[in-house]
Amino acid sequence: MTSLVVGQSLGLTLVGDGVSFRNSRRHVAKSKFFFPNRKRLARAALVQARPREDGVTPSPPSSSRPSPAPVVQYKRADLADDLQAEARALGRAVDASVYSPELIARKHGSQPLKALRRSVEILTALGGFALNLGIDQRRGKLEENMKKRAGELRRIFTRLGPTFVKLGQGLSTRPDLCPPDYLEELAELQDALPTFPDAEAFACIERELDLSLESIFSSISPDPIAAASLGQVYKAHLRYSGQVVAVKVQRPGIEEAIGLDFYLIRGVGKLINKYVDFITTDVLALIDEFACRVYQELNYVQEAQNARRFKKLYADKADVLVPDIFWDYTSRKVLTMEWVEGTKLNEQVAIESQGLKVLDLVNTGIQCSLRQLLEYGFFHADPHPGNLLATPDGKLAFLDFGMMSETPEEARFAIIGHVVHLVNRDYEAMAQDYYALKFLSPDVDVTPIIPALRDFFDDALNYTVSELNFKTLVDGLGAVFYQYPFDVPAYYALILRSLTVLEGLALYADPDFKVLAASYPYFAKRLLTDQNPYLRDALIELLFKDGKFRWGRLENLLQQGSKDRDFSSKDALQPVLKLLLDPNGEELRLLVIKEAVRVSEAFALGSVVDTYNSMPEFMRSLVFNGNGNGGPLTMNPTELESTLELRDQVSRIWSLLQSSESFDPAILQPIAQVLQQPEARRLGGRVAGGVGQRLAARFLQQLLRATTPSPSPVP
């Protein structure tokens, strides 16, 4: 696909028509001379866009159409032009509406008849559906008719309009709330909606951009390529460059319709908060949160800015694609983006027919999602199959950036810490995490919650990470959250939804796929390499228990972390050293000194054992004073086996570090520099002293064994 750097021509003179964008009013007047009415303009655009029988797109009427712009790299001037174009787009969206419960209450409260008609429409549609469910339940046919009722609900949501379509889209990605039949039906709401007239769409483009259609595009599809809940999309060619673009146009009158629906839904929310005691969540706050997000989606300039920020943060990876924005052709109701050729991620057969693997793409999505959720905190909150495409060259393309969310910084680290506490089965610490995650208010006592966590996770953690299903985990947590006064933030629900959707997509290709197993390398890498104090403390908590170092945990972390393509053995070594030599790290130093003595002794004694085992039998007796059958050391077999296992474990860990693609012996140079610091020299002296004492004690035991006479036999 051709990639075009925008901005180099934006806001400048249109060569083909010889008319400047900045003189657009004169140009529009000129276009009206050629197209006296709106129908004729729309008709002309449709004819121009209709493909010929030979499959060649016709050229525009002007004979001086410029050739497509070459592919170039961004330069300083290009970036400046792009920023200026973005500023102009922001100017076109200056009057974009912002959600305000007070404003919609004043507006629609003064129109009681209109509100009454809409209320009757909603209650009639949903009341009939509820009645049919009740009849099915009484007849014992709830399961038998589920597919039929799911289709009925999808059609009802479609008839009720954009607000309920957005509601259905949210439900289609919540397997914890909806049965599979409903998920399948509601998923069709993503891009199978009725279209609105093309003439209205083309008129909206001209009105929003203050330019005639033929001055912007050399061709545009006669019909929408897709219809979404808030607008519909056309495929077009830009006149100035020939670039293929997707043009999204907002549905007419949608803001008015959504405002009325939220006015009515808020009324229901007030009644629930006041009279329904078993629902502890603030329903009105949830409604306002959802409404605020929908209103943000109505501003396409905001969506364009979301896309640009998303691209900057995450498209640095070669397997992630985010389309470019064309700012001079974007406003609050029109969004023009780079066209992306691709296949929906749930179309497994079509993807694999191109030589691609769905699981590879899903893994790319999981890794990108983890970076979104836990690294930068800015994440795509609507990752349904229609917004994720597999490109022919194997990239994962993200589309539709209207619904985004952010994870607070403290919550990102708290989530990783929460995983550490889960692995350690430290349920008291898990319960305390819910304060940091803002799930519980500070006055709530977590003591009764701890047994509930233990009952669920003790059973769940009997599975390995590769066996544990993410949906099972979500369902179990949901049951705990429902029983106690949790107030789950919107960002956390969206995180669960994102990962659940990705696991669901993977299950089409591999019924045994587990999102937790695919995510664990990322968590291991972050714990081993992140220098954030919270994560360093979490790593220590994971590795040390009851004053002992758990080498098995470190080995497992390195094995898993090395599976992450961004893992660096250099990064895994430096934070630990800095923490160890910190002035406030005396408690950790005592633990490390103790463990370093054990490891050093294990290597020294292991060398003795290896040397002994390599000797011929007669030499063993000579060297060890005729005691060749008893072994070289005065250690019981269990202690010796444990010592040798420790040595082998540390050796394996060093091999894992060496096997990292980023390993370079030069990484030891900064370590050597760190070891020159006074605290490090003192630490080394204490370790050497401890090793010397242990080896001296072993040597003394050996001497005593050698000089102690064997007991004489009793006559």
UniProtKB/TrEMBL annotation:
- Annotated region Disordered: the residues are 48-70
PROSITE patterns found in the cross-reference section: PROTEIN_KINASE_DOM
* GO function term, MF aspect, one: ATP binding
Q: Taking every annotated instance into account, which residue ranges of this chain make up the domain Protein kinase? A: 219-549
Taxonomic superkingdom = Eukaryota
Q: Which family does it belong to?
A: Belongs to the protein kinase superfamily. ADCK protein kinase family.
- What name does the UniProt record give this protein? Protein kinase domain-containing protein
The record lists the organism as: Brassica campestris
